[in-house]
Amino acid sequence: MSRVLDVYNYLHTIPELGMQERKTSAFLADQLENAGYIVTRNINNATGVVGIYDTGITGPTLALRADMDALGHMINGNLCARHSCGHDAHCSMVLTASENLIQSHTLKKGKLKIIFQPAEELGTGAISLLEGGVLDDVDMILGLHLRPKSEVPLGQATPAMYHAASQRLKAVVHGTRAHGARPHLGVNAIEAASLAIMSVATIRMDPNISYSIKPTQFDCNSGVTNAIPDEATIIWDVRAEQNDIMATLLTKAKQAIENASLSMGAAADVSWYNLVPAAVYTDDAIALYTEAIEAVLGKKGICDPGKTAGGEDFHNFILQKPHLHAGYFGLGCDLEPGLHHPDMHFNTAALATGTAILEYAAKKYLG
C-alpha cells in the first residue's frame, strides 16, 4: 500500500470538527518532524500546524496548504464528525508530497512551508493562521480540493477552481408586543420579517454574474400563541461570483430589510458575518499548476478552470495579503454523491495523482 493511502486511511478514522483537530494536528506535526521539517504547533493558540524546510539558499517561500477539519452530520439522532469534504485526502496528499520533496533533494532555493489549517468549514481557520503570522513571509501559496465527478472526472484536474464569495446576513426585526385580541396596539414582528424576506427576494443584479440570496433560518417565538411577538430573527445565505457583487448585494439587502420593516412600523438591526471571499488567483500560479497537471496526466488531463457556488476560506489569505501569488487546483477522483454528503466517497487512486501534481509544482518553483 502506498504512503499517501496509508496516511489517508488513518486520518479517515479520526475525523474531528473545526478547532478540535487535536489528534489530526498532532499526527501531522509528528510526521513533518520525522521528515525533517521545523514544526510549530498550536498556531495562534488553535490547532494549526506549520512545518518549514529551509534550503539555506536565497529564494522565495512557497506554502502548500491543506485543511484538516471534518463536518458534523446528524446521523440517527447523534452528531457525528465525518470527513465528507475530503480534507483528510488533502492532508494526506500535502503531507506525502512534503515528505517526498525532502527525500528527493530537489529543492534548490528558498523555503517550503507546509500549512495544515483548522476550521475551514467554520470559515475561521485561515483568519486564525493569518493572525498567527503564518503568511507574513510567504510569496506563493498553493491549495487543492477534491472535485465531484460531475465537475472533474477521474484522470483529470483543473488548474484553477474558482469559488464564490459566501456570507451570512442577519436581521433582527423589532416590533411591539400586544395581546392577540388587540393586534392594532402592537407591531407583529413575524409580519414585518415576512415582508423583509419578500423585499430581499425582489433584488435584481446583473444576471450574467452568478449570485444568490435566500433565507435559511427564521426564529420568532413570543412564548405563547395568543400574543403579538415583538422580535424575529432571520438568517440569509448569500453567495456571489465576485467580491464586488457580494458587497453590492449586501448593501441592497440591508436597504430592503430596513425599508420593509419601517413600512410596518418596525425596526431592523442588520449585520453580516462569516465572510468567505471569492477566489482571486494569479496567472503565474495557474500556469504552474497547468504545467504540473500536464506533466502528471498529459494534455488530456487538463480541464478548463472551474466555477462553483461553494465557498473556501483559503481566499481569506489573498484578501488579507493581496501581494500573495496564489493558486488552487481541483482534482478529479470520481467523487460521489457529492461534497458534504455523509456518504461521500471517491476513488482513492487519485491520491497519488494529486501528490505528484503538488510535488511537481513545488520542484518547479523552488528547484
Characterise this structure.
This protein has 367 residues and is an alpha/beta fold. The chain folds into 2 domains: 3-164 and 279-366, Zn peptidases (Aminopeptidase, 3-Layer(aba) Sandwich), CATH 3.40.630.10; 165-276, Alpha-Beta Plaits. The protein contains 9 helices and 17 strands. The chain has helices spanning 3-11, 22-35, 87-103, 125-131, 189-201, 243-263, 283-297, 315-320, 350-366, and strands at residues 38-43, 48-54, 61-67, 71-75, 78-82, 111-117, 140-148, 157-158, 161-163, 165-174, 178-179, 211-219, 227-228, 231-240, 267-276, 306-308, 325-335. A 7-stranded mixed β-sheet has the order 1-2-6-3-7-17-8, with helices on both faces. Helix 1 runs antiparallel to helix 3 and helix 5 packs antiparallel against helix 6 (243-263). The radius of gyration is 23 Å and the shape is elongated. The mean pLDDT is 97.
Structural class: alpha/beta
CATH superfamily of the largest domain: Zn peptidases
Query: How many β-strand runs?
Result: 17
Oligomer: single chain
Shape: elongated
Low-confidence stretches: none
Helix content: 25-40%
Radius of gyration (CA) equals 23 Å
Strand order of the largest sheet: 1-2-6-3-7-17-8
Q: CATH topology of the largest domain, which one?
A: Aminopeptidase
Q: Biggest sheet, open or closed, and with what strands and sense?
A: 7 strands, mixed
Tell me the number of structural domains: 2
Strand content bin: 25-35%
Succession of helices and strands: HHEEEEEHEHEEEEEHEEEHEHEHEH
User: Kindly, what is the distance between the CA atoms of the first and last residues, rounded to a whole number of angstroms?
Assistant: 29 Å
Task: Tell me what the CATH architecture of the largest domain is.
Answer: 3-Layer(aba) Sandwich
Tally the helices: what do you get? 9
Mean residue pLDDT: 97
The CATH C-level class name of the largest domain: Alpha Beta
